Amino acid sequence: MTEDKSRSDQSRRIVFTGASGGIGTMTRPLLARLYPGLVLSDRVEPKDLQPGETFVKADLTRPDEVAAAVKGAHSVIHLGGHSVEGGWDQILNANIIGCYNLFEEARKAGVKRVIFASSNHAVGFYPRRCKIGTDVTVRPDSRYGVSKAFGEALGALYADKHGLIVTCLRIGNVGPRPLDARRLSIWISPEDIVQLFRIGLEHPDIRYDILYGVSDNAASWWDNSRARQLGYRPAGKAEDHRAHAEAEQAKIGPDPVGDLFQGGTFTSAEFTNDVKRAGP
User: What is the spatial distance between Cα 234 and Cα 193, in angstroms, rounded to a whole number?
Assistant: First the structure.
């Protein structure tokens, strides 16, 4: 999976946007052991900056600040942006304009690889009864989901037109264990998502790929065979946490719309359609 050792991990400058967010906080300690000297970027400095880590403050809506963050980088793990549903202006600025700025400044800086944190919400209106691959038509469940579909398309453009090596991860839900019944299908452990980061950073056969960010879950709705072709061997299993997830689900109660679709409450929020006319 790894590239030639003459370009060792330590020689790379890896920029990690969204470093102060939830996924960033969970995965940074694991990444730091593999890639010393991470360059962290966010609007707010992480509270636990470690020796060897460098922080570069950057607002994704400001191209000059993004340029400063990616200067001299070999690779970027792009987790930055607004991480849940929001109003249009908020999503537009953080996740669409900000995503464009990241790819464009990365191109101009000569960055070789970008890992884009997409989301299951880019395909959230697929019914839970369906098992889908990465080649399906996007069916976003929210403005947030639309922004992730945009990021995937933008990544394809920069891969084909400019030669960036781009890996889009349709992330389910990252955490120590699944929090409810839906997450039994979409959960991914921090250790497993770091394994996917490594594939995106190192695998020689990637030009542009979409992979699902999901652990080895028996109830998974996603065909992640491409990730496995690239060497992904998830260790986490949501079934190990089923009792906890079901107990938490009992506290939530039913959602007549969200329970039908993979995107859950993102599909039911602001929903005005007939469920029979929603989804493919």
Answer: 9
Q: Is the pTM of this model over 0.90?
A: yes
Q: Produce one character per residue of 22-38: b if its CB has 16 or more CB atoms within 10 Å, e if not.
A: ebbebbbebbbeebeeb
Nearest residue to 196 (alpha-carbon basis) of 158, 163, 222? 222
Q: How far is residue 91's CA from residue 87's CA, in Å, rounded to a whole number? A: 6
Instruction: Quote the pLDDT of residue 47.
Output: 87
DSSP annotation string for 207-276 = SEEEEEE--S-TT--B--HHHHHTT------GGGGHHHHHHHHHHH---TTGGGBTTTHHHHTT--S-GG
In this prediction, residue 50 carries a pLDDT of: 85
Q: How far apart are CA 110 and CA 201, in angstroms?
A: 15
- Residue 252 tokens, joined: 């939530």
Q: What is the pLDDT of residues 259-268, one digit of tens each?
A: 999 999 999 9
- In tens, the pLDDT along 97-106 reads 999 999 999 9
- The residue assigned the tokens 């880019």 is 122
Q: Residue 63 and residue 45: Cα distance in Å, rounded?
A: 19
Give the span between the Cα atoms of 60 and 70, in whole angstroms. Answer: 11
Q: CA 144 to CA 122: how far, in whole Å?
A: 8
pLDDT in tens, 222-259: 999 999 999 999 999 999 999 999 999 999 999 999 99
Question: Which residues are identified as catalytic?
Answer: 144
Q: Is the dihedral of CA 273, 275, 277, 280 positive or negative?
A: positive
DSSP 157: H
Q: Give the number of C-alpha atoms closer than 13 A to the C-alpha of residue 10, restricted to the C-beta side.
A: 2
| DSSP code for 78 | E
- Domains of the chain and any CATH numbers: 11-277 (3.40.50.720)
